User: Fold these one by one.
Assistant:
Number 1:
Amino acid sequence: MIKWTTSVGGRVGGAAPLTDSHLQVPRGLSCTLSRQLTNRWPVSSNVSTNWPRSTGLSGKPLSAALTGWKHSGAAGWAKSGGSVLVTNGPAIEIRGLTKRFGALEVLRDISLSAFDGDVIAIIGSSGSGKSTLLRCMNLLEVPEDGQILVGGEEVRLRPARGGGRKPADRQQIDRIRAQIGMVFQSFNLWSHLTVLQNIIEAPVHVQKRSKAEASVEAEALLAKVGILDKAHQYPAQLSGGQQQRAAIARALAMRPKVMLFDEPTSALDPELVGEVLRVIRALVEEHRTMLLVTHEIRFAREVASRVVFLHQGQIEEDGPPGEVLQSPRSERCRQFISSQLRG
Ligand SMILES: Nc1ncnc2c1ncn2[C@@H]1O[C@H](COP(=O)(O)OP(=O)(O)OP(=O)(O)O)[C@@H](O)[C@H]1O
Ligand SMILES: [Mg+2]
């Protein structure tokens, strides 16, 4: 939890949204900040994502606009004496990430941070590297170059025989991976287990929680995603939308700090898309930290705090949805968005 303090020394917290007057917002930025803070307070730790690009503060918290604040690496932003705010570091951060498959360079020098409560929509055409980026964050792929930090802890990688890198510490990988929930396009439920068994599998066998406790929590999660009545059915007995909601419940059961969604609705019939988006929207309202690869541009505009446009393995646009989706700087991004909105 982040502590915000005002210039008069008191803590700003509880249910009260921050207002511009609390924060001495620089001239010209008040509308953006008011909206962001009212919507996201109190859990969002960072209001970086709605800074207009023109301010040069994109990617930095509000503190950066206020004198005396400095970024201190994984520890986040800090101020030496004085008034305004303390934040923690990113929930997940990648620095200078490069990923190759043989001679094919799929991601090139990608840097990206998600702070608590951020919802980052990742868009881009097929083959641009979106899934590979999420898979690197979840350590399903090991990047050739760059760093991955989860909750400020750097994933330790070492050179592999024959080139590339591999995890230096398997236990660290398991521990870090447990903090990241992943939802795939194709659900990936175990077909021989019931929905409830799917959900308690990792909490019981990986996190060593009791079956009884995990089952109670699983039922609560199934109720939350609206399929409690399917708890004892097998995946094949569920519709695609219900399977995807079960997959979301399964990811949440690990109590992850960050959720990654890779096109969670693109395998669904159009009439089933809405029920999955409703569940994701509810998670946004809980201020969960999420990275969401999606072709649902309208949905991204509605829920994302930030939109990243990938092109040929590089970040070509990165900013608030109002800017990237409505007035993109790059022609390629503009064409991509209009093709998606037409489709
Ligand atoms: N395991 C792999 N081995 C070799 N090449 C791969 C592998 N995984 C992905 N690629 C290649 O990396 C590139 C990026 O793939 P990726 O799946 O990340 O794209 P994407 O943006 O998610 O595309 P889509 O929108 O179609 O899902 C593609 O050229 C793909 O063929
Ligand atoms: Mg993909």
Note: Confidence is low (pLDDT under 50) at residues 1-86.
Number 2:
Amino acid sequence: MANLIFMFLAILFATTTLTGNAISDCNGPCTDLNDCSGQLICINSKCGDDPDVGTSVCEATCAPSTPLTCGTESYTTYSCSPPVTDSTAAILTLNDFSEGGDGGAASSCDEKFHANSELVVALSTGWFDGRSRCLKEIIITASNGNSVTAKVVDECDSMHGCDEEHAGQPPCDNNIVDGSAAVWNALGIDQDLGRVDVNWSMA
Ligand SMILES: *[C@@H]1O[C@H](CO)[C@@H](O)[C@H](O)[C@H]1NC(C)=O
């Protein structure tokens, strides 16, 4: 009997230490720094860069945030986007910025709706950068060599979704340039493609 109790305790001990030792990457759960990979430390129960060491592992990799559950689906969310360069790779998607369109609420930069003939885009949350690119122009270049200059009027929300404000749509990926029909037309790309690779830069 004593042996059985000992075995039970040994198994319990082994399981708790094993599960407690799962190593987390950026934004993963943790209770102390031993739970975090590499040089990451545990802040507010999440693994992240150590401000004292000054590493920027998590910033450079743009780790996902807490997933958003919409009904039975779970979606990845991001508060960051890949770094912006002279030619940043993105996915162009199609958005209807007009009233009653699939864009949901009025564009957040100017609180206005926009006709499909206007050269306007929404950028993923990280690139929208807390409104810093509001009403600025970007140049979008397609693989067919065509390019177009369009104005940033909204955020393609990579953190929230599935609600009325976002017209029931899931959160945006973090590498999206969500363009009006005019943007697609100017680039000479068939809107039925839905998602195409582009590069963008500040105009
Ligand atoms: C984006 O730029 C890269 C590097 O300049 C290039 O290799 C790639 O083909 C470009 N993509 C598109 C869609 O134009």
Note: Confidence is low (pLDDT under 50) at residues 8-20.
